Amino acid sequence: MNDMRRLHLSFAPTFSHVDMVRAAVNGICSDFFQLSSNAASVLDFCLIITELMNNAVEHTDNVVLHAEIFLADREAVFRLISAGKSFDPTQTAAMPNLKQDDLPEGGYGLAMIQSLADGMEYERRQNRNMVTLHKTFPLTTEKEA
Questions:
Q1: Could you give the 3-state DSSP secondary structure of residue 74?
Q2: In whole angstroms, what is the distance from residue 101 CA to residue 123 CA?
Q3: Of the candidates 78, 48, 57, which has an alpha carbon nearest to the alpha carbon of residue 12?
Q4: How far apart are CA 64 and CA 19, in angstroms?
Q5: Cα(124)–Cα(69) distance, rounded to whole angstroms?
Q6: Mean pLDDT by 10 residues, the chain (145 residues)
Q7: Cβ(75)–Cβ(134) under 8 Å?
Q8: Residue 94: its pLDDT value, please?
Q9: Alpha-carbon distance 75 to 133, whole Å?
Q10: pTM for this one?
Q11: Neighbouring-strand partners of residue 133
Q12: Nearest Cα to 46, choosing from 105, 126, 133?
């Protein structure tokens, strides 16, 4: 059984900080899960947390965002906490039609999150938005060297 890891980061809502958080999450997930068969799941997880953070940067007037990641056994959990007006990202989002000639700007993030995450919850508490994403990693029978 793996140990549990928890990382908490507070950062200004800028895209450069999103990049740093994504790099930290990628590193901690790659180290924790250590199986090449999990590489695609780590990339998917990094993609969805990046989309979630980008949405917070684009649509908020926060001075600080808080991110937490929890890793245990086969699951990674990412929670983003922001102040500001209420929004519920668990409402079903449709992926835009990728075959049309004039693709809309934006609108992909939430649909990608919903299709790649294994779970998503939203909670509004004390004027704060808390979005939690879950990603389950494949079960393997032997540890790779």
A1: coil
A2: 37
A3: 57
A4: 15
A5: 19
A6: 81 95 92 80 93 88 90 93 76 57 59 89 90 86 46
A7: yes
A8: 57
A9: 10
A10: 0.81
A11: 78, 120
A12: 133
